[in-house]
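Task card 7
Instruction: Convert sequence to structure tokens.
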Amino acid sequence: MLWSDPDDEPPEEMRAMQAMLRRAGVLLALAMVVAMFAAGLR
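Output:
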């Protein structure tokens, strides 16, 4: 890799979007677990 090559860092807004999507995915997975648990209690 040459010193003149651009770095492969994604732009700041893309990194923020990826972090938000990751957080939303974790929240969705937790909500599904809670929903399955609540459905199992009935």
